[in-house]
Design brief:
alpha/beta; three-stranded parallel beta sheet; two-stranded antiparallel sheet; single chain; D-Maltodextrin-Binding Protein, domain 2; 7 helices; Arc Repressor Mutant, subunit A
């Protein structure tokens, strides 16, 4: 005789605890007739009646009570084990280390808090990443993911959704001629040295943060280079 199917066992457990075909069906999102079919199939495999059903009540037979007493804890263990393995497969157990550049601002911390709330079995740790090396910590396995400035043109990395979008801002001294303007054009950067980034950051990424030419092709002289957002 073949072994019971998982759906038959689920139907029996729901019926044994609800003692009502309608409520058991609602619990499993099945119709009453489907619960009856699954119960009959299980009784056929076992070779005995598990439930006595009359027009007024539903109750377990002694055989049904014996099955329920042994099945419930075993079934719960199976479900818990599957859930644990699924969490490991999804990578949401243990410790999740996420890197960030600059300041751990409110949007970043809200995202970390939401992750912790959604995955209480996973400890989320935040790690500051130097501006000069946005991708190194991921490559070296020091963090599992990182929130960094765009662009990311590295075939060894998987780019996730954009975390936040902010307009480019030019910061100048209050003594600089541009400080008195209501706005400037990108072409105005020609002849204005820009503070760049030093260190291990890829050249394409450094040029995106401090371009060497304007969109029109006019040269932008390089200024001093820094390795972290706290410098300069």
């Amino acid at each position: 005789m073949s072994n019971p199917e998982i759906r038959e066992l689920e139907a029996f457990l729901a019926l044994a605890e609800e003692l009502h075909f309608g409520r058991a069906g609602e619990r499993l999102f099945l119709s009453q007739s489907r619960i009856s079919q699954l119960l009959r199939a299980l009784e056929s495999r076992i070779g005995g009646r598990l439930v006595d059903r009359t027009s007024r009540r539903v109750r377990l037979t002694p055989l049904g009570e014996q099955l329920h007493a042994g099945l419930r804890p075993a079934f719960d263990t199976i479900v818990a084990t599957i859930d644990e393995v699924r969490e490991v497969a999804r990578g949401v157990g243990g410790v999740f280390r996420v890197g960030f550049q600059g300041t751990a601002n409110d949007p970043f911390m809200r995202a970390v808090t939401a992750f912790r709330d959604g995955h209480p079995d996973c400890a989320a740790e935040i790690v500051e990443i130097p501006l000069s090396d946005p991708f190194g910590a991921v490559h070296r396995g020091e963090v599992d993911a990182a929130v960094v400035l765009m662009p990311v043109l590295d075939d060894a990395l998987v780019l996730g959704p954009v975390f936040s979008a902010r307009p480019l801002t030019l910061a100048v001294s209050d003594r600089h001629p541009y400080a008195r303007r209501p706005g400037i054009d990108a072409e105005d950067l020609a002849g204005c040295p820009l503070i760049g980034v030093s260190g291990a950051a890829p050249e394409y990424w450094r040029l995106a943060q401090a371009p060497a030419v304007t969109p029109g092709g006019r040269a932008i002289p390089p200024g001093p280079a820094v390795s972290s957002l706290q410098e300069g």
